[in-house]
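The following record pairs a protein chain with its ligand, 2-phosphoglycolic acid.
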Amino acid sequence: MQITIVKSKEEAGKEAFKYVKEAIEKKEDSVLGLATGSTPEVLYEEMINSDVSFTEATAVNLDEYVGLDSDHPQSYHYFMEDQLFKHKPFKQTFVPDGTLGEEEAIKQYDDILEQHPIDIQVLGIGVNGHIGFNEPGTSFDSTTHKVQLTEETINSNKRYFDSIDDVPKTAYTMGIHSIMKADKIILMAFGKEKAQAIVQSLEGEVTEDVPASILQKHPDLVVILDEEAASELSSAKQ
Ligand code: PGA
C-alpha cells in the first residue's frame, strides 16, 4: 500500500490523474472502474482538462440506485454523464441498470465485469467504511448484488435530493470481490469526517464490519488523502 497525503482536494485530483494517465498511455483501451460522489470530482476535472483521449477506453461504474432511470438527475448514470462522459467521451461506459429487476440487473452487470476486467479502480469511502454501496457486513466474496442502504448512507446522500424521503433505499452495487479483482485501486478520501473510516480501514483489523479494510490485502493499492482524512493514521500522528 502506498499512501500519499496532500494539502488539498485539487492536489489529490492531480495525483490520482497521474495514475489514470499512466494506465491510458500504457494501454489506450484500458478499463477504468469509476465512482460517483463528491470525492472523484477533482479527478474528473483533471481528466476533462487534460489532452488525454479516452475514446478507446471503457468505463465501468460501481453502483446505481434501484428504480432511477438514466435520465433521473440523481441517478448515477446522470451523474457520470454530467460530470465526465459528456465532456470526455469514452468508447463505452457501463453503470448498473437501476430500472431492471434484481436478477436481470445482477446477471447483466456480472457479465459486463467478466468481459471488461478492470485495470484501475477509483474509489471513495463512506463514513462507515463502505466502498461502492457495500455496506458494513457485506461478504468479502460478494459480486454484483442488491443492497439495502443504511440510514447513515441515506443521510449522507440526502444532500443530493429534495427530501430524505426521495432518497432510494436500495441500490445495485459491484461486490467487494469484483472491486478487489481490479489490477490497481486508487482510494481517495477528504475531510475530517472520513478520518475514522480511513484509520479503521488502513490500520485496523480486516473485517467485513469495515468493508474498505479488505483493501489492505490488495497487491496494488494507492491511497490519496488530505491532511484531515489522514489525521487519525498513526503515521500522521508521529
Ligand atoms: P463522497 O461519498 O465521495 O460523496 O464522500 C463517498 C462514498 O460514500 O463512497
